[in-house]
């Protein structure tokens, strides 16, 4: 509930003030602003009987299930703020929609999160480490 409310607030600020993302990968990134909802959202959908990765291309499915699934909520937001064909403005997400099942999507998201976030010093230099998230230097 808290994370979803945080996303709602961030999206409202992004739309209201037309905020530009820092360090965006442009069309070759998942989303200009967030990554965790894709990681956690793909985990939510593992084993889902109705929604498959290709379902993100169906606006009706996205709008129906977005209130319950973070990944689809992200897709819904992208559909609201970007124009043109999905494969043009979000080619990486479009390619991911061709994967056979959510477990494959989630494992790829985890690898991407590790490479693009956890292994990036400019991002991790601001992380607070402690007993819940210890730092083990190499």
Largest sheet: none
- On the 0 to 100 scale, the average pLDDT is 87
Order of helices and strands: HHHHHHHH
Q: Give the overall shape.
A: globular
Q: Approximately how much helix is present in the residues?
A: 40-55%
β-sheet strand percentage = under 5%
Give a count of the beta strands, DSSP E runs of length 2 or more: 0
Terminal residue distance: 36 Å
Rg, nearest Å: 16 Å
Unreliable parts:
none
Oligomer: single chain
Structural class determined from secondary elements: mainly alpha
How many helices? The count is 8
Report on this structure:
This protein is globular. The protein is mainly α and 138 residues long. The protein is 54% helix and 0% strand. The protein contains eight helices and no strands.
Please give the structural blueprint:
Blueprint: H1 2-16, H2 36-44, H3 59-65, H4 70-81, H5 86-89, H6 91-96, H7 102-118, H8 121-124
């Amino acid at each position: 509930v808290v994370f979803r409310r945080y996303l709602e607030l961030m999206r409202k600020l992004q739309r209201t003030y037309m905020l530009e993302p820092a360090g965006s990968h442009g069309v070759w990134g998942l989303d200009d602003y967030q990554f965790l909802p894709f990681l956690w959202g793909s985990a939510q959908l593992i084993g889902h009987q109705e929604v498959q990765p290709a379902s993100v291309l169906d606006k009706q499915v996205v709008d129906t299930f977005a209130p319950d699934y973070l990944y689809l909520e992200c897709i819904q937001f992208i559909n609201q703020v970007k124009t043109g064909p999905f494969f043009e403005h979000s080619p990486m997400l479009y390619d991911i929609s061709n994967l056979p099942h959510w477990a494959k999507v989630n494992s790829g998201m985890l690898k991407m999160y590790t490479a693009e976030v956890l292994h990036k010093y400019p991002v991790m230099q601001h992380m607070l480490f402690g007993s819940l998230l210890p730092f083990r230097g190499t």
